[in-house]
Amino acid sequence: MSEENKGRVALVTGANRGIGLETVKQLAQQGMHVLLGARDQAKGSEAAKKLKSEGLDVEFILLDVDDAKTHAQAAKAIEEKFGKLDVLINNAGIMLDEKGSGGFAPPSKTSAAIFRKTFDTNFFNTVALTQTLLPLIKKSPAGRIVFLSSGLGSLTLHSDPKSPIYNYKVPAYDISKTALNGYGVHLAYELKDTPIKVNVAHPGSVVTDMNANGNLEVDEGAKTSVDLATLPNNGYTGKFIHLGKELPW
Ligand SMILES: NC(=O)c1ccc[n+]([C@@H]2O[C@H](COP(=O)([O-])OP(=O)(O)OC[C@H]3O[C@@H](n4cnc5c(N)ncnc54)[C@H](OP(=O)(O)O)[C@@H]3O)[C@@H](O)[C@H]2O)c1
């Protein structure tokens, strides 16, 4: 446990399972008070209860990224209870692309409806939540904002025939993450003269419900988010990072 994290309040979205749940655990192990965000009351409370029973300072908060009412309720609750938010990890994400025997549907066959629904959660509503919580993050002496993107959001890697993801394309998901990368860069620029650091994480290819074929376990998968949430005051902002290494946009 680190003394300097005492009194710091973190919020992780989509944290009832997968990388988000592990991120909550690791941040709490570092001494933060962590709000475990989940859209399902029962699943979120259960996950928080389990971590609390391990002695961790974790509390459930209802947060459906697709429901702005819960954004406002969460902001009000955080304001009243803590008066600030030190860390926001935008972890919740979905992959809706249709999978056939030959891989995911190509861009020519991916419907606008799938693009729209994917962008709603992974981009538009994540942007809206971040904007709602920003006034509270500005009240922190050392705010940190992390966007969970993916290496699959990198146009540089997607257009390089030598890259490991060149032949792995999940159009709606990938491009929603590319958009998120763009937002991260722009928000980092806007906040560059403040104490807030804004960075984008690629967790790695991690075994979760979203990715049965990952090559990392969740404890490794959560590390990049935790590193970016705990950057020192002289740390970087506006970067795309995987396990301490910079990725191309
Ligand atoms: N796993 C990988 O290899 C990998 C690689 C690169 C990037 N990522 C990114 O890392 C993040 C976490 O992924 P994961 O692998 O842990 O996925 P996961 O196991 O599928 O978990 C996704 C989480 O997001 C939540 N969620 C989805 N829509 C939500 C909404 N509208 N409001 C609130 N929560 C919502 C889910 O809640 P419910 O239980 O209620 O559905 C669940 O808790 C995602 O942004 C993903 O794109 C993952």
Separate helix tally: 8
Shape by Cα distribution:
globular
Output the CATH class name.
Answer: Alpha Beta
Q: Into which percent range does the helicity of residues fall?
A: 40-55%
CATH superfamily: NAD(P)-binding Rossmann-like Domain
| CA-atom Rg in angstroms | 17 Å
Low-confidence stretches: none
**Lateral arrangement of strands in the main beta sheet:** 3-2-1-4-7-8-9-10
Number of domains: 1
List all distinct small molecules, including ions and cofactors, that are bound in this structure.
Answer: NADP nicotinamide-adenine-dinucleotide phosphate
According to CATH, the fold-level topology is Rossmann fold
Task: Give a brief description.
The protein is of the alpha/beta class and 249 residues long. The chain has a single domain (3-246), classed as NAD(P)-binding Rossmann-like Domain (Rossmann fold, 3-Layer(aba) Sandwich).
Can you walk through the features of this model?
This protein has 249 residues and is an alpha/beta fold. The protein has a single domain (3-246), classed as NAD(P)-binding Rossmann-like Domain (Rossmann fold, 3-Layer(aba) Sandwich). Helix content is 41%, strand content 15%. It has helices spanning 18-29, 41-53, 68-82, 112-137, 155-158, 171-190, 218-221, 223-229; strands at residues 9-12, 33-38, 58-62, 87-90, 99-100, 103-104, 144-148, 197-201, 240-242, 245-246. It is globular and about 50 Å long. The mean pLDDT is 97. Bound molecules: NADP nicotinamide-adenine-dinucleotide phosphate (NAP). NADP nicotinamide-adenine-dinucleotide phosphate is lined by residues 13-14, 16-20, 39-40, 43, 63-66, 91-94, 121, 148, 150, 202-203, 205-206, 208-211, 214.
